[in-house]
Amino acid sequence: MTDVIGYRAKIGLMLPFTNTIVQPECEAITPVGVTNHTARIPNRPRPTDSDEAYRKAMEEGAVGTEAVIDRLTPAATDLILLGHSIDSFRGGLAGATALQDRLTRHAAICPVLVPSLALKAAVEKLASPGCRVSVLTPYLKPGGDQACDFMESAGFKVIRRKDFSCKTALDIAAVTEDESRAAIRELDGDDVDAIVQCGTNLPFQRVAAEAEFFLKKPVLSINTASYWAALRHLGIDDKVYGFGTLLERF
Predict the structure, then answer these.
(1) How far apart are CA 158 and CA 138, in angstroms?
(2) Contact partners, residue 154, CB within 8 Å, separation at least 6
(3) Is 76 among the domain residues?
(4) Whole-prediction pTM value?
(5) Residue 72 falls inside a structural domain
(6) Which CA distances in Å does 249 have to 135, 138, 208, 228, 241?
(7) Using one digit for the tens of pLDDT, what is the confidence trace for 111-130?
């Protein structure tokens, strides 16, 4: 049977309990005939008073995600998108690939995409494999280290980075556009081919498109890159305007 509203595709979004940014940013770029369906991942508290304790807690990786997939697949989703990025950077490119494969095997009826691999594909599409990047994250230092390690393992050269060092997910969602604009200025330079943003609860979609226009180089929001990857994986090639070159040209 064909879904009346989501007659082209039904996309599942797996988001942490505290994530308030992924869903509205995805909805802003959803083509007609595609619908999004959300299930929530329980947040696991991580200590924020010690980088070492935080780093150790991150070693747990993505836990309990399969149970959330089980809440989405009864809706006959065509694809599921993991809207939580920090664990998808763990273990570099090999770790991200293994996580995506593991979650897809569990879903069985549809592919599951992880944001780190979507970001890699988007950078390669807009710039080139092995290009020079600056990385913006909302994370504490261990989280920023994990994101940069992934980018290096994916073949990119990290020239500069900035971590907002937010202690909670709600703090991440409260980062202002002006703060993000200032960070972009810090990260930019003639030695940088692209600026990439990690952390799905950081509101960055509009700022990325704006900065790309003025800097004349790719500035990538991880939520935009992830949803772009989902649409293209499903064979939906609609061009969406106002949110950057990725959706307008590719």
Answers:
(1) 17
(2) 92, 93, 120
(3) yes
(4) 0.95
(5) yes
(6) 23, 28, 16, 11, 9
(7) 999 999 999 999 999 999 99
